[in-house]
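In the previous chapter we treated chains in isolation. Here, by contrast, the input contains two separate entities that must be folded as one system, with a combined length of 943 residues.
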Amino acid sequence: MLKIIIPTIMLIPLTWLSKSNMMWINSTIYSLMISMVCLPLMNQPCDNSLNLSMLFFSDSLSTPLLMLTTWLLPLMIIASQYHMTKEPLARKKLYITMMILLQIFLIMTFSATELIMFYILFEATLVPTLIIITRWGGQTERLNAGIYFLFYTLAGSLPLLVALTYTQTTLGSLNMLLTQYLTERLTHVWGDSLLWLAFMLAFMVKMPLYGLHLWLPKAHVEAPIAGSMVLAAILLKLGGYGMLRITMMLNPTVNFMAYPFMMLSMWGMVMTSSICLRQTDLKSLIAYSSVSHMALVIMAILIQSPWSFMGATALMIAHGLTSSLLFCLANSNYERTHSRTMILVRGLQMILPLMAAWWLLASLTNLALPPSINLIGELFVTVSMFSWSNFSIILLGINITITALYTLYMLIMTQRGKYTYHIHNIKPSYTRENTLMLLHLTPLLLLMINPKIILGTMY
Amino acid sequence: MFRGALWLLAGRGCVGRGLSTRSGGSTPDWTEKVSEIKKKIQSALPGGAWDPLYDTSHLPPEHSDVVIVGGGVLGLSVAYWLKRLEKPRGAIRVLVVDRDHTYSRASTGLSVGGIRQQFSLPENIQLSLFSVDFLRNINEYLAVVDDPPLDVQFNPSGYLLLASEKGAAIMENNVKVQRPDMAALPSVITMVSQEQESATDRSPSLTRDIRQEGAKVCLMSPEQLQNKFPWINTDGVALASYGFSTSSSRMQTSGGKEMTLKRIHEVHVKMDHSLEYQPVECALVINAAGAWSGQVAELAGIGKGPPGTLEGTKLPVEPRKRYVYFWHCPEGPGLETPFMADTSGAYFRREGLGHNYLGGCSPTEEEEPDPGNLEVDHDFFQDKVWPHLAHRVPAFQSLKVRSAWAGYYDYNTFDQNGVVGPHPLVVNMYFATGFSGHGLQQAPAVGRAVAEMVLKGQFQTIDLSSLLFSRFYLGEKVEERNII
């Protein structure tokens, strides 16, 4: 794992010491190379995990997420080039440094063995993200957004710290490899229920669960493009990953403690999809769609069946790529017209046809068109939810329909129809933007061929 | 940091206020103390350029979808219709900026306030018709829930236009044809006059185009108009100067000729009497600056180019001063007085119920007063206005002028008709200006037309494509023969 972490740390001096005209190129190329280095981790020799050291390990759940993280850094750097052009050089370097720092923490988080180390790095990821949102965001509301983001996540994860330290003192070790073999089972007493809640709350807030999701539309909308990308693609999955790891220790309390969260997720998934139909702000629509997809992941993790775990993992990877791609597309609109309102920018297909192709593909994957990996995730989750409770198929079916509705609404609103007069002289798509979209789409489409690498531990 | 952020957020509502009220309400003292401490520290230390947490709640927002330059009746009308016609509610953020929130020199507040439909241009007639309908049913459009209904002093007393001998008979016949039921108060009265002014060119088209729908109205005061737009962020930002930050791209027309198209990225709004300015990032700019539209257009780079080309075509709107006189005449015409426009160009209307009248006259080209200030020339009344009035209405031979004021026409020197719609080169600037004295009466309809152009890409209810900017370049005058 050090072969990934040390080069990522060394990206920081690379940024600061590069010549100003090579800075973006250097950081992009070297971070792409680091993501190539991550690929061999996919070679899992045994069913269990690839144990690299006392501190770091990677198994078939964390490897796809690690790949996603390292793949995303060059994409974030590519996407930020335009809106940073007017900043002074030192501030540009600082921005890239923040992204790299976030990357380091995320890599270590996904590969951590000890749960306390996971927790520390989980919290540490908040700091660079907060800096990116509040310093480089678009509007004045970003201060509000940053505060919501910070305090929601902190308040949720403080109980997790208490629970982890308590478990460490009682169990003796929080090594994830060992906790799988935990024989002491949690009971149904109040204390254990609260312990369960303490463990799960941090990840629920991060996912986000429907009742605790208020920070997400704010943070996603006000963040600059790199911030939105990393938030949507990775940080939400931190919650999912944490939940997947922790539920192994928490049986059988989860069987009855899960009910309120299942209800909130099912209801929330339909609600947030419906809100998407009424959104006027493009980024806000994509943010709410993230909440809706993550609600599926929460439900899948809480019912704890092999199919649902496979679906959750696949959905996390697929949604990460799709959501990040949609944010990049929305940002390409925003950079040209300085407005995120959908009705003011219409009919782009006539003006930017190649970008319209990317919009189409992104929308198709977002609405889980077969045979994309989004469908695999959603389908597995739906099927396992049906076997958990027959009634849930109604809500899940409604959600899938509404997802298709709002995705097509977004596509038709921005791409089809007569274009508005005042956009007819926008700059044509840069090669950089097309590269960005293609780099998002390539893994998304290629994974259709071999989805078993993202199906996680239960495959 | 938390307190500082709390103080900063106090202007934005939500978190700041909620948290402070929960903690017991001592936050106002805290914020004052914090700002005092900050000031003390700042005065002690040498000044720095970076002050990240200062309060900007008095400045306009950093971002707005549409910025309307000019807060008079046209600007506010465009803002109203944009919010009214947007499909999902709350979609567009509209910012109206005006240089003077007291409206001391705005044409809106200084207008005589007559509305008529006797235009020769069909578009003008349709605009006025809709505007009359708007004002008649103003409570349908502008009423606010739980507020008393609006009273805009709508006085349908008729509009009297005078024509000369030649066209009069035809006009009367046509009026009878178009309006077979003359039971109600006749809305157009034509009188034969003794002057030899040839109105032949105006009468046939007048009678052809006039639809006798409603009566004429005295417009309401602009203060009422601007108070009733609840969804619009009209902060009343006072500013002394504007700037635009544009980007340009060279494109080729289909004929191979190179043109430079521009986009406005930001509007720099400078606060009055201070050095603060706020760049407002926007997608669209609507130029409704009235008499100063020409200057605002020049800021965006319209008209900078070799003359005779599209780049070099300026927006030909300039301020022209017009006087309005207010007099009292005890034997003057009573309640049935229409708004009367004499053939000489002098006009007057009844104001209130105490035999007071408002009126004036448009000076000829040679006598144009200097638009640099708003001083009133009383000799103009004595020499030019009073004789005609006295001739037309004998009772006005003895009258007493109570007061007078001057206002600007946003005079379109090209053809005295409004400019509506986008500019061909500066792609995201729309115009709603240049109405040369009939802007106030057509404001609701023009606002709706511009909102339709922005939201739907074309004019839907009233087709104003003959009033687009491109006519200045192509040289097609859209002339109105009935200019007061």
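Chain A touches chain B at residues 138-141, 143-144, 147-148, 278-280, 337-339, 341-345, 418-427 (CB under 8 Å). Residues 163 and 198 of chain A are 6 Å apart (CA to CA). Compare these points with the single-chain example from earlier in the chapter.
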